[in-house]
Write a structure and sequence with these properties.
Strand order of the largest sheet: 5-4-3-6-2-1-7-8
CATH topology of the largest domain: Heat Shock Protein 90
Radius of gyration: 32 Å
CATH architecture of the largest domain: 2-Layer Sandwich
CATH superfamily of the largest domain: Histidine kinase-like ATPase, C-terminal domain
Largest sheet: 8 strands, mixed
Bound molecules: adenosine-5'-triphosphate, magnesium ion
């Protein structure tokens, strides 16, 4: 008989929590502890993305700082692999001035004068697949950071100069670079290294610091003044050994280096398109140096700071503002705290609030006496009152000409156009949409169009499907513009679509600032800009198709001229050479469009006069590239792409001989 299993010992009664026992565990959560646990919220979900996010945060800060100070940015981005079999030689300074073209790798092994990077370095090519630890340095020529603020800026989360103001800038949260430093510390234990110099005559300061995640405060390990700040040998151009001013940030972290989609390379390429005024010298961990040259010698205008618009204020925020305000009377508070509120608008808001049940509210009410019901009535009254849109001249768009320069610099296409919409408003925040299109040329033909998204000139490389920009591209009917497009998909063909949203507050879907939230107003504006560019693209494509069709007609015509001549020769005494020439003249006059060329604005070049839809459009550029006509055939909907017929040379020779 099978043995019965031994009876289980009775479970000890569970001790349940009480309010008191729970109270012993309830305590404040430090913001840095929260983000250390939830690092994915800030873009540090995996090693590859962490490496990109770190470069991005430092580069964005450098560009912001340079522009704010009116300095043309020159950035050195250097990534070194610290493990794997990486043995990377530094790039010799003189190699930089060889006038490298964009994207051309500089193979430093070819340089006999290059010194090994570290003791024991060898000629071995770096094996980056095994490398897990990297050192990222971003150095700029910006205004620098004053000594007292360096520990706060890099050693405290939610500390910055941009969060409390409504102004167009890349950074807005005060969390980016300190989060990158914290990630580096968590994964490698290495502190952040900072060197900063605020002017040619001031001394540089060097700090090494870590974030105390429990206190959200910096722990400084090195704090020293440098008599002179020497740039790394690899970065030095002739006569510029000493750094005049700027900031250098070095973060050591666990990461993964890979090229391709959503890589540092792609981020910098797209940054170069939207920031043609910046020069970036990028040294990858495998030793490749890419120089993104400056294309525009002008610093963008400094955007103005604005006050929030009343339409965008939330009830809780209004309550807090009323509590904290230093203004005594309601009317004064409304006028001074918000944009577009005059004394009469403030009066109307109060009147509307009265009707909504806050009978005692007047323009002269004391802010400190407004109770909850009255704030609610005020909040509702604001939405009902007609208030002028916020000022929109606070935005600094890239502009169609600069977008075209950026696209021309980075993409070998054949047709380019760009459009900047007038500014408008979502939730009380001014914003402005810009779109650029590059088409044809060397762009890949058999893939979906590439959509490159930007917010305040920063490329957005992740979460495309959550982004309003992608939704607007999908929502546009590209078949109207000569492109094929699958249902609910992006168009297909040799097309790059550039979309930029400029705003005093970009509504990102998360703190990692990867996708623009899908507000109707934003999607609609993007759609309108896409349509405008799409129409120009369509005009160009149709014209090219006409030329291609006429070419084919003529080819067919010419193919048979020889045979017609041979037949006529048998019947009559006609001179075959003359007849051939006459028939060819007829063929050419009937297919005259085949000889038409498109100028650099996509218009037919007519001998007498130029006229057409794209005529005089400064926002269109056409670059003549080889095989354009053949390329074009691929784009004619429903048409076979067989090779065009050639005139029959054999017959021609026969008749000529005759
Ligand atoms: N290279 C730099 N030059 C000058 N100031 C800088 C530099 N890097 C950072 N700062 C200052 O440090 C602050 C904090 O930077 P951080 O990246 O943490 O936040 P942010 O740029 O304000 O916002 P976000 O979190 O959206 O990036 C910035 O607001 C800026 O004032
Ligand atoms: Mg930042």
């Amino acid at each position: 008989m099978a043995k019965m299993p031994a009876a289980k010992a009775p479970k000890a009664p569970q001790v349940r929590a009480t309010a008191e026992s729970m109270a012993t565990k309830q305590k404040e959560i430090a913001v840095s502890e929260f983000f250390a646990k939830n690092r994915h919220l800030l873009g540090f979900d995996n090693p590859r993305k962490a490496l990109l996010t770190t470069v991005k945060e430092a580069v964005d800060n450098s560009l912001d700082a340079c522009e704010e100070a009116g300095i043309l940015p020159t950035l050195h981005v250097t990534i070194e692999a610290l493990n794997g079999s990486a043995k990377v030689k530094p790039v010799p300074a003189q190699a930089k001035s060889k006038g490298l073209k964009l994207g051309e790798p500089l193979l430093i092994d070819d340089d006999p004068e290059a010194e090994p990077a570290s003791a024991g370095g060898s000629d071995e090519r770096p094996n980056l697949t095994n490398a897990t630890r990297f050192k990222i340095t971003v150095r700029d020529n910006g205004p620098g950071i004053v000594k007292q603020q360096i520990p706060n800026v890099f050693g405290r989360l939610l500390y910055g100069s941009k969060f409390h103001r409504l102004r167009m800038s890349r950074g807005q949260q005060g969390i980016g670079i300190s989060a990158a430093g914290m990630y580096g510390l968590l994964t490698t234990g290495q502190p952040v290294q900072i060197v900063s110099k605020t002017g040619p005559r001031t001394k540089a300061h060097r700090f090494e610091l870590a974030i105390d995640t429990l206190k959200n405060r910096p722990e400084i390990t090195v704090d020293e003044q440098l008599d002179e700040w020497h740039a790394p040998a690899a970065d030095v151009k002739e006569g510029q050994e000493k750094v005049r001013q700027g900031t250098s940030v070095t973060i050591t972290l666990e990461g993964k280096f890979q090229r391709g989609r959503a890589s540092v390379d792609e981020y910098l390429e797209q940054t170069a398109i939207a920031n043609p005024h910046a020069e970036v010298i990028y040294t990858a961990p495998d030793g490749e140096v890419r120089i993104f040259p400056r294309e525009v010698e002008e610093v963008p205008d400094t955007p103005d700071e604005i006050k929030p618009h009343p339409y965008g204020v939330e009830l809780g925020v209004l309550m807090r503002m009323l509590k904290e305000t230093e203004h005594k009377h309601l009317s004064e508070f409304l006028q001074k705290s918000f944009s577009r509120v005059t004394a009469s608008v403030a009066g109307e808001i109060c009147k509307a609030a009265n009707k909504l049940g806050a009978a005692t509210v007047t323009a002269q009410s004391w802010c400190s006496t407004i109770d909850h019901a009255q704030v609610e009535a005020l909040h509702a009254a604001i939405q009902q009152t007609k208030i002028q849109n916020p000022p929109t001249d606070c935005l600094v768009p890239i502009g169609p000409q600069q977008i075209l320069k950026g696209l021309l610099k980075e993409l070998k296409a054949e047709f380019y156009t760009a459009e900047t919409r007038e500014p408008t408003v979502y939730r009380g925040n001014p914003f402005q949409i810009e779109v650029g299109i590059a088409f044809g040329g060397d762009l890949p033909k058999d893939e979906g169009a590439k959509v490159i998204r930007f917010a305040n000139r920063v490329p957005l490389l992740y979460q495309p499907s959550a982004c309003s920009i992608t939704k607007a591209v999908i929502g546009t009917n590209w078949r109207n513009y000569g492109m094929s497009q699958p249902r609910n998909g992006i168009p297909e063909g040799p097309l790059v679509i550039f979309v930029h949203m400029a705003s005093v507050w970009v509504p990102f879907t998360s703190e990692s600032k990867e996708a623009v939230a899908d507000y109707d107003e934003i999607r609609k504006e993007i759609g309108l800009a896409l349509k405008e560019c799409g129409r120009k693209l369509n005009t160009y494509i149709r014209r090219k198709q006409r030329v291609a069709r006429e070419h084919q007609r003529r080819d067919v015509f010419e193919k048979y001229i020889g045979e017609v001549v041979a037949a006529c020769e048998k019947m009559t005494t006609v001179d075959p050479k003359k007849l051939y020439e006459q028939l060819q003249t007829v063929a050419r006059s009937r297919t005259v469009t085949a000889d038409m060329q498109l100028d650099d604005e996509g218009n037919f070049i007519k001998p007498a006069a130029r006229a057409g839809k794209l005529d005089g459009d400064a926002n269109v550029v056409v670059i003549e590239r080889e095989d354009n006509v053949d390329d074009q055939e691929v784009l004619v909907p429903g048409k076979s792409t067989g090779s065009s017929a050639k005139p029959d040379a054999g017959l021609f020779e026969e008749h000529e001989a005759a």
